[in-house]
Amino acid sequence: MAVIEVVDPSTEEAFASVPDVGVPGAVRAVDAAAGASSVWADTPPRTRSVVLRRAYELMVERTESLAETIVRENGKPIAEARGEVAYAAEFFRWFSEEAVRMHGSVVEAPAGGGKQMVLLQPVGVSYLITPWNFPAAMLTRKIGPALAAGCTVVAKPAAQTPLTAVAIEAILHRALAEAGVPEAVVNLVTSSDAKGVTAAVLGDPRVRKLSFTGSTEVGRLLLAQAAERVLNCSMELGGNAPFLVFADADMDAAVAGAMVAKLRHNGETCTAANRFFVEAPVADEFAGRLAVAMAELPVGPGLDPATRLGPLIDAAGLAKVERLVRAGVDGGARVLTGGGRPAHLERGWFHEATVLTDVPPDSPLLAEEVFGPVASITPFEPGEDVVARANEVEHGLIAYVFTGDVGRGLAVAERLEAGMVGVNKGVVSDPAAPFGGVKQSGLGREGGHEGLLAYTEAKYIAVDW
Ligand code: NAP
């Protein structure tokens, strides 16, 4: 049987494997999801809610083993992995609460003579593709609303992190079985043949929805494929977040916010602050304090409880970060801390937490999503239109602004071209809030009530009443 070897990024060694089910496995998964589709759509919302609530409880109970699995296959520090499990489980709890709030409407037709009824119905079999950086949360953020809305799912996790997905599938199967509904509501496809599997699933007329989280590059390819069958699509794509610090900001809060916005999961997040713009009077102070805080972070394997910065996901991820840092330095940037691989670690795809200043404005370091622990700091002059500079890139997922004047913070937030803005906050993710981007960072929202609507179709029934 073909398998996918799962590699520990801190040792570069395979430590587990899962079946590589390939295209035949994908076809079986679609058959199963399509077979269970009408049963699940007809299952009372309250039962759907109970299943999700039970999945939430089981995830919380199994926090420690799930967190260890995340660390082994993904590399993030164990404390962050526990945080991810809690965050991921919350999507099941939130959508267990939303499952019973799929409200349509009945309104009087404006011209009179009848009523207009709108029903929200499940969109149908949904294909979910997730990345490796949040192996639990990216999956539950899709499965939670899909199940709440009455859709069955086929989920394809990233080939690098299938173990967490397998553990979550087992939790969902148990919750479904306890409620007396078919396990075929949730189907996992572990395969290294992402293209082949996806072509098979998207080509099947029983599949009605594609929800993808991953790079903008792959998102574009998938949108083109989905266009062939005019599929309902949700796209959570890459980011290149600006982080604005005004001179009146609380400097402790700005540095703390920068640490988390930059370094959560080793800098490998779509929400990672990539481009720091700091008002000139405080730019040196901010850069210096950020460099000191970053230099103090213990770097090592994620399972060591002292570790605050783990390895990057793979050799290619590390090579990309090294290339971008080199490009910055070659262009004249100054390294305040870090800059390369940590000397004390011989194995593993580690990179030091790095702070650079004087990065040339046209450097690839500012144009590309770094996906690593590298902060580039650029000063701006008081009165300069820093928002225009922040908006210069093709991405628009998230932006951060730190200022002592909340009025200014809100005015800047309104002008920033981003789906989300943190005002004096370095983390904004919350299952109860709509997460997503504008421009080339995506289409649609996950989380909040909007997350549920993404798995529904509105049906309008005109009634001669
Ligand atoms: P990726 O290369 O786009 O892969 C994401 C998923 O797509 C994986 O499951 C991958 O499968 C699959 N895939 C790759 N090529 C495919 C193809 N041609 N056809 C069908 N499926 C394909 O992204 P990644 O490197 O895993 O994740 C990092 C990216 O995700 C970053 O850009 C990050 O910003 C973005 N992201 C966005 C959000 C958000 O909410 N906006 C959240 C997290 C991450 P394999 O693993 O088998 O290749």
Describe the fold and architecture.
The protein has 465 residues and is an alpha/beta fold. The protein folds into 2 domains: 258 residues, Aldehyde Dehydrogenase, Chain A, domain 1 (3-Layer(aba) Sandwich); 190 residues, 3-Layer(aba) Sandwich (Aldehyde Dehydrogenase, Chain A, domain 2), CATH 3.40.309. It contains 15 helices and 20 strands. The strands form 5 sheets. Strands 12-13-14-11-10-16-17 form a 7-stranded mixed beta sheet, with helices on both faces. Strand 1 and strand 2 form a beta hairpin. The protein is globular and about 65 Å long. The model has no long low-confidence stretch (mean pLDDT 97). The site of NADP nicotinamide-adenine-dinucleotide phosphate (NAP) has 29 residues, from helix 7 and helix 8.
Secondary structure blueprint with pairings:
Elements (H helix, E strand, L loop, with lengths): L2 E6 L4 E7 L2 H21 L2 H17 L1 H12 L3 H21 L6 E4 L6 E8 L2 E5 L7 H13 L3 E4 L5 H17 L7 E3 L5 H9 L4 E7 L2 H12 L4 E5 L4 E5 L5 H13 L9 E7 H16 L19 H16 L3 E4 L16 E4 L6 H4 L6 E7 L5 H5 L4 E2 L1 E5 L3 H10 L4 E4 L14 E2 L2 E2 L4 H6 L2 E8 L2
Parallel strand pairs: 5-6, 5-8, 6-7, 8-9, 10-11, 10-16, 11-14, 13-14, 16-17
Antiparallel strand pairs: 1-2, 3-4, 4-20, 9-19, 12-13, 15-18
Helix pairs in contact: 1-7, 2-4, 2-5, 2-6, 3-4, 3-6, 4-5, 9-10
The structure holds NADP nicotinamide-adenine-dinucleotide phosphate.
NADP nicotinamide-adenine-dinucleotide phosphate binds next to α7 and α8.
